[in-house]
Amino acid sequence: MGEPSVSSEQNATGQELPDKIFNDPIHGTIKMHPLLVKIIDTPQFQRLRHIKQLSFGYWVYPGACHNRFEHSLGVCHLAGELAKTLRESQPELNITKEDILCVQIAGLCHDLGHGPFSHLYDDLLKEVCKNADKMDLKHETRSVKMFEHLVEDTENKLKPVMEEHDLKEDDRKFISELIQGLDENSNGSRGPGKKFLYDIVANSRNGVDVDKWDYLARDCYYLGVQNNFDYRRFLRFARVCSVDGEMQICTRDKEAQNLYDMFATRKSLHCKAFQHRVVNVIKIMVIDALKKADDFVEIAGSGGKKFSITKAISDMEAYTKLTDHIFEQILYSSKEELKDSKEILMKIVKHQHYKFVGQIFLETEKKPLEMINELVELDTGKKLQKSDFSVIAVAIGYGKKKKNLINGFNFYSKDDPKKAKRIELDQVGAIPEKSEEYLIQVFWKGNEDLKKAKDCFEDWKKNYKSLPEENKRLKLQINDLKAENEMLRQENEMRQKKEMLRQKKEMLRQENEMLRQENEMRQKKEMLRQENE
Length: 533
Description:
Layout: E1 3-10, E2 16-24, E3 28-32, H1 34-40, H2 43-46, H3 68-89, H4 97-109, H5 119-128, H6 139-152, H7 159-164, H8 169-180, H9 210-223, H10 231-237, E4 239-243, E5 246-252, H11 256-274, H12 277-293, E6 299-300, E7 306-307, H13 316-319, H14 326-331, H15 339-349, E8 355-362, H16 368-377, E9 389-397, E10 411-412, E11 436-444, H17 450-464, H18 467-532
Parallel strand pairs: 5-10
Antiparallel strand pairs: 1-2, 2-3, 4-5, 6-7, 8-11, 9-11
């Protein structure tokens, strides 16, 4: 778990309480407040050890074995660091130790609501639940429910510990708001003067938050992919300014390129790993297996009641038991009702995936069902069945949907650190104006007619892609390449400056050495002269 250290916090009797030290491969040595450790040591939180951060990315990238558990520790740490930085640099913000502790708890608990295989479970719920479009199926909502369940669980004995650290009911509400993310028109329970605190863990305003900082650094580390965003610089220059009468976290204007690197790294991860075609085909197959198994897997919940895989979200005691282990539970089950599900999962184990038909990036959104219908219509022989197609349709971009990623954030200058301002794209460099495009991947479940399916897809592409649209896509690619080249140029320039500085230091050292030797010679001559006299 970690080693104890001396805490700066005190309980009601004035006794110092021990923190615990964790050694994290991303952030190094991090210190956890005793209340945070108390939350960590609960079944509801420990469950995150058994949910992979990148779901089936681990099946493509063997190093991507990290879990939601360590990511949550990282977000907790960064949330505390950002809140403390703001308190130290701007005492007038009146950030209290209770504020910081609440922000840390929110960072720690923000992913409690994730189901098996992380975001895959959300996709499963959307397909299975009736009226899914009218239901709140976001994992953040489940995180709030699980947090409340964790606190209310008498075996965890958390309430008295929270009271020891002066956290009351309104603080619990504040933590839930931090996890859920604040509505744009709301000031939250802390009021307008502290609305900036809601941007630390889940920033619904522009997507710049510590959750993203940690998963970018951690995912890149375990995937073996370059991370060009330096969150430490952002921490160093973070400052709260008034923006149209609203308190928001801003950064120095010279950090605009670093901010762009954050969004660019996110997009790169989506293209290279998150939406890798093998990762996505495994996701499709697992969802098919879970849908077939849903009515035949029983999970014990409160009062001894049994719940299915998808209905466990209505009972947090049952949901606590639902993790990635469901894969092996089905795979090795002897239940006859799970035979079809087991066959699909065994195909995954044997690398016998659904066949890849093709993929394309579009400028406008295309629904999977709409795509399947259009493909089947192109089959003149009427052999292709809709049920044999499976389509992934996902938006891939730099940030908050189609919003300009730089114009959505506010900066301040060295000369006027209290005044927030926007930065235009032409002040930053080669940054694409368009921030989002749509990836379509088509897979074939059938045993035959794969060539026919591929032919229909190629015909569909020819019909869909006009020359102007292709030119626009090429321009986007060129802009991306320009941005990458600019980053490489800056890195090379920095290396050259460092080398020149090193050479200059070496020349100064040599000159100093020559002067020292000359001085030494003069002293010896003077001594000889005095002896001769």
